[in-house]
Structure formats: C-alpha cells, structure tokens
Specification:
With 274 residues, the chain is mainly alpha-helical. The protein has helices spanning 3-25, 36-55, 64-74, 87-101, 110-118, 133-143, 147-160, 165-186, 191-215, 227-240, 245-249, 259-272. The protein folds into two domains: 1-141, Hypothetical protein af1432 (Orthogonal Bundle); 145-274, no CATH class.
C-alpha cells in the first residue's frame, strides 16, 4: 500500500466520524478561528508534509496516516473547555472519548494522545529535524498560523486570552518566529516548500510589525476602525458578536473606507477559498 492509498483509506475510515464528533463537541461560534475548518487545513498541511517525506524516502510508516488524521482533527478540540495552555490536555481527554466511542484500543494510540497533548509546546525543546507524529502535527498546525489566516487566528485567540492590544503584536511575532524557525530547520532539505511558506510567514510578521507601530496611538472603540489596528478591532467585533469570519469578508462594504482592512479581507477570502 503506497502513501496515497494509505491516506485515502485513512480518510475513508475516519474523516466523516471525526468531523461529526468534532462538530458535536465544539461550539464554532465561541472561537471560530479554531473550529473545524482549522482542523481540516491542518490535515491538508500534514498530507503535504507526508507526501514530501515519502517522495524523499524519509518515511516508510504507512500506518501513520490512520493516526495522523485523528491527531490533526482533534488537537485543538480542547479549546471547547480551555483556551489557554492546558487545551492540549483537554484535547487528549476528548480524543480518548472518541477512541472509546469507536471501539478503538487506547493503548494503540498512545503516540496520538501524546502528540495531541504536546502539540502546542512552541519552545521546541526537542531537537529540530526529529520526524515523528508529534513533529508532523506540530508543523502542520504551525503552517496554519501564517498568512492572512494566521492574522485572524492569532488575533482572536490572544484577545480571548485577555492579552492587552498593545502587547499582542510583540507576542505574536515572537511566537510565530519560533514556529517558522522550527519549520525551516526541520524541513530545510525542501527549499521550495520553505520559501512557499516563508512568504506566508512574512505576511503575518510584517502585519504585526506595522500593527506595533500604530497601536500606541490608536483609539480602539471608535466608529470607524482603520489600519492594522482596525483589522484586529474587526476581528474583536467578530468574536464579540459570535459572527463567522465568512460573514464579514462576504460583506466588505462596511469597511470600504479603509484600504488596509480591505486588503486583509481580500487576502483572507483568497486563502480560505483555496
């Protein structure tokens, strides 16, 4: 069985029941940036990474897609309980429920549970370049933190964690920088892939660099959000109103007065439609 067939078999066996389980547990409106679409994209990135490794004969574990799809679809489901640093622990507990519900032997999925619990450790204490289930999950998750999608996802989760607007830009740049550096070191043998995602990382990093320049003089709560801080204010409004992100970028007339907000909404719409 080659990798393509293995991935197709994993999707046939698990994708539908994973999505149904996720939707039954997770309230999309409470934190839409980490909902089912995020998990679908992480699975897509994971497949891209696995295919690359297979092309280079760097992975011969054809059972991994059956475990990796579970890890990708349930790694952030614990956000339904805790949006903080312990969400991985809660995701592990909920994944255990999924395994039990589907009569899967928990001891056979210990590496999946370990990866889910530890995927959000962005200190990367383990040596870069070590390829295992946790590495693939963590890097795939990191790749969804870049670009316009990353601007949206980072902004919502940091805001909901109670971090002050004047601090989020610096913290996001620091965190995202660690994510990209780890990705570049781990997959440095694939220059084309690194350059592809470097462009997406730079969109995010440049955005929050400009945000930091604006934030100290910006007045949040005004009638007309503007600029880079205005983008974050729009995302905050989205969260407070429990409105889906697609409802905003599909109705851009409200923000036509500001070129930065329009640029962001156009970029986000383009990424999410890929």
């Amino acid at each position: 069985m080659n990798l393509t067939v293995s991935i197709e078999s994993a999707e046939l066996q698990f994708k539908q029941i994973l999505e149904e389980f996720f939707i039954s547990v997770y309230d999309e409106k409470s934190l839409s940036s980490h909902g089912i679409d995020h998990h679908r994209r992480v699975w897509s990135y994971a497949k891209e990474l696995c295919s690359l490794l297979a092309e280079r004969n760097m992975s011969d574990d054809l059972t991994s897609p059956f475990k990796l799809i579970i890890a990708c679809y349930l790694h952030d489901i614990g956000m339904s309980v805790d949006r903080g640093i312990r969400h991985g622990h809660h995701s592990r507990e909920i994944c255990t429920r999924f395994l039990e519900k589907n009569n899967l032997k928990i001891s056979d999925f210990d590496d999946v549970l370990q990866a889910i619990e530890n995927h959000d450790n962005k200190e990367y204490i383990t040596s870069a370049g070590k390829l295992n289930l946790l590495t693939i999950l963590s890097v795939a998750d990191d790749l969804d933190a870049f670009g316009f999608t990353g601007i949206y996802r980072y902004s919502e989760i940091y805001i909901t964690r109670g971090i002050k607007p004047e601090k989020i830009g610096h913290l996001i740049r620091e965190n995202a920088g660690k994510r990209f550096d780890n990705f570049a070191k781990t997959f440095g043998f694939a220059d084309e892939l690194v350059q592809k995602h470097k462009k997406r990382y730079e969109i995010l990093d440049n955005f929050f660099n400009e945000y930091n320049d604006q934030v100290n003089s910006y007045q949040f709560g005004g009638p007309h959000p503007s600029g880079y801080c205005g983008v974050v204010e729009v995302i905050l409004e989205l969260h407070n109103n429990k409105t889906g992100i697609k409802d905003i970028y599909q109705k851009p007339k409200k923000y036509l007065h500001d070129p930065v907000i329009c640029w962001f909404l156009d970029g986000l719409a383009s990424e999410l439609s890929e």
